[in-house]
Every structure is written in structure tokens, then in C-alpha cells.
Amino acid sequence: MPSSTPLSDVLGGRIDGLDLAHPLTADQQTWLADTLHRHGFIVVKNQSLTAAQMVTFARSWGRPSPHVIDTFHHPDDANILVLSNVFKDGEPTGLVDAGTYFHTDYSYLEDVARCTILHAQDVPPAPNGTRFANQAKAYADLPASMKDKIQGLVVKHHYGNRDDLNQRSRTVASVLNPDQAKKVNWVRHPLVRKHPFTGQPALYAVSGSAFGIEGMDDEAALALLRGLSAHATQAAYCHTHNYENGDVIVWDNALLLHSAPLVDLTRPRTLWRVTVLNPLMH
Ligand SMILES: [Fe+2]
Predict the structure, then answer these.
(1) 116 CA → ligand 1 middle, Å
(2) Ligand 1 centre from 176 Cα, in Å?
(3) Strand runs labelled E in the chain
(4) What is the largest CA-CA distance in the chain?
(5) CATH number at residue 98
(6) Could you count the other beta carbons within 10 Å of the beta carbon of residue 25?
């Protein structure tokens, strides 16, 4: 059986003893899922997966869901979104800036993401990492009066970064073309969401796509959401993972917020990404 080592007091685990180029056995997948639910984020080092092998690994978690930005799907498999700052013949080969603010993947969709998987292809030296924040710990530490106040609240989500809507800014959500924009609508999710596999309560997507709260005026709702997000992204709940070539990482979107780095445009950086839906909803 593989083994896991915690990467910090708050989240993250390094996995040793797995070669993801081979399909996982049922026992390995059960162990890996339990490990992900415990750590929120896991990394397997020194992997070299083809597009097909990466998608086979992704399918062991649930159904991959291609990103609404279809411009940079991997040519061998549309389930993979290419993240890259490399230009070829003057054209970008991938999405350059993606999610450079705290958010949860697919919180703007009805079908939220179970987990996101990244495979580092060519990354510059550290610091180059994604920052994660543990939303179960952030929720657990809230005073009882705040837990009472937010219990049962329903949050209105839409694609975008509610704290930066300037399309020329690098911390705006990746800009959609008109066809892509037609595919996203308003959706609603509970503010405190029980983890679909463990039942553990956590704050859900209080940053990023959360624009309002049902039954509350927008100003009061945004003040509440911004206060919760400031609490939930304090350093005490965070861990940053700096990538090395060959890393395969998986994070649990029900448990963590994450924020991608602002990429240095002069240093090549390419990663592949697959986002997987929650199999309990399908
Ligand atoms: Fe993201």
C-alpha cells in the first residue's frame, strides 16, 4: 500500500508508492480518496502521464467535466484544459491566468466539482505555487453566534470574481467569449455545506463566485461574505504548494478554497488540468 506524509498542520499530504500511469486498484482508490478527504490536497511526485493516462486517473474520482473555456482544451483529450504562458507563432498555447484569487472550482455551476487534478509539465523554480485554505477548519473556529447566523443561508453564485470585474485586470476571472458566457447562469449553494463524503461542515465558496445571499440585500450580503472570506483565508488556514515538474496534485473542492499565482510571463509554465464532478450527484 502507498503511504502519506502531512505537508503542514492545516492541510496537504505527500503520497509515496504510487505510479499513476497504471490504473489504480479498488483498494488503492479507496485509500487515496480517504487520504484526500483527510488532507484536502495531495501530491504524487515524479509522474509522467500521457493525456490518456491522466484522464484515466481522473475518471477514478468521477466524471471529468471539460472547462467552459474550450479554446485551450488539450488536442488529445478535451477533458484536459492546458494552463500555459507559452506562445507559439504569436498565439497562446494555454490559459495564462486562471483563478488568481481565492475560489472553488465550478461553484458557479449547478454540478459542483468534487476535485481538480493538475499535472505539472514545465514549471519554473519556486515560488510558483497554488495557495490553499482549509474551509472546514475555518468554519469550526467561527464563534457560535456566527455559526447560528449563517446556518441555512443560501448563496447566489455566478461565474466571475466578485472582487474584480475589470476584464483588463489579471485578477479578473478568465474572460469568456459571448458563446461561453451564454452557458453560465446564476446558481445557488448553501453557505455552510456538508462534505459529500465525510459529512464534515465547511464554508463553501465564500470568495470568488459568491455575489449575494438569498433574502438579504446585496450590500449586507457582500459585507458578510467578505468578512467570512477574510477569516477563512488567514495564514493559519493556508498552505502553498510550489510545483516541480512531474507533480500530480489533487485537491478537494468541497474542503478548500484555492488561489493560483500570478504567473511570471518571462518564465515558461505549463500544467494540465482536469476537473471532476461529484459522482454522488450522477
Ligand atoms: Fe481554480
Answers:
(1) 8
(2) 15
(3) 3-6, 13-16, 41-44, 73-74, 77-84, 87-88, 91-92, 113-122, 130-134, 154-157, 187-190, 192-194, 201-203, 210-213, 238-241, 248-252, 256-259, 270-277
(4) 58
(5) 3.60.130.10
(6) 10
Calculate how far, in angstroms, residue 98's C-alpha sits from the geometric centre of ligand 1: 7
pTM (two decimals):
0.93
Question: Using one digit for the tens of pLDDT, what is the confidence trace for 50-87?
Answer: 999 999 999 999 999 988 778 899 999 999 999 999 99
What does the pLDDT look like over 3-56, one tens digit per residue? 999 999 999 999 999 999 999 999 999 999 999 999 999 999 999 999 999 999
Q: How far is the CA of 227 from the centre of ligand 1 (A)?
A: 21
Domain, as residue range, for 31:
3-281
How many Cβ atoms from other residues are within 10 Å of residue 80's Cβ?
26
Q: What are phi and psi of 82, to 5 degrees?
A: -90, 125
pLDDT for position 171: 67
* Residue 99 CA, ligand 1 centroid: distance in Å: 5
Structurally, the chain folds into a number of domains equal to 1
In 3-state terms, what secondary structure has residue 241? strand
Distance of CA 246 from the midpoint of ligand 1 (Å): 19
Calculate the average pLDDT of the chain: 92
Q: How far is the CA of 237 from the centre of ligand 1 (A)?
A: 18
pLDDT at 150 over 90: yes
- Residues making up the chain, counted from first to last: 282
Report CA(273)–ligand 1 centroid distance (Å): 10
**Interval between CA 257 and ligand 1 midpoint (Å):** 8
How far does residue 261's CA lie from ligand 1's centre (Å)? 11
pLDDT at 201: 98
